[in-house]
Amino acid sequence: SFFADWLWLIPGYIARNQLLDSAAQYLALGFFGYETQNAVLERNGREAYSKALWYLSRAIVDVDLGLSSETLCATMLLGFYEVSS
Question: What are the residue ranges of helices labelled H in the chain?
């Protein structure tokens, strides 16, 4: 799949960018919370999603951050989960 080609690269970028960290956290918590029907994980995933959206809103108004690969990747992660859930 398209995502399988680049998704494995994300761990190398964790702890470098708050937006990407929050988006990855949201994707993981949301997926595992949904799969296991764990309300705590799902709630924590929604909190990470809110945080990721806040960081995204800050990033897109910044000339450098808005065009960074980390911002694009985070946006794709957020969209990927939204489309697949």
Answer: 2-7, 18-36, 39-59, 63-66, 69-84
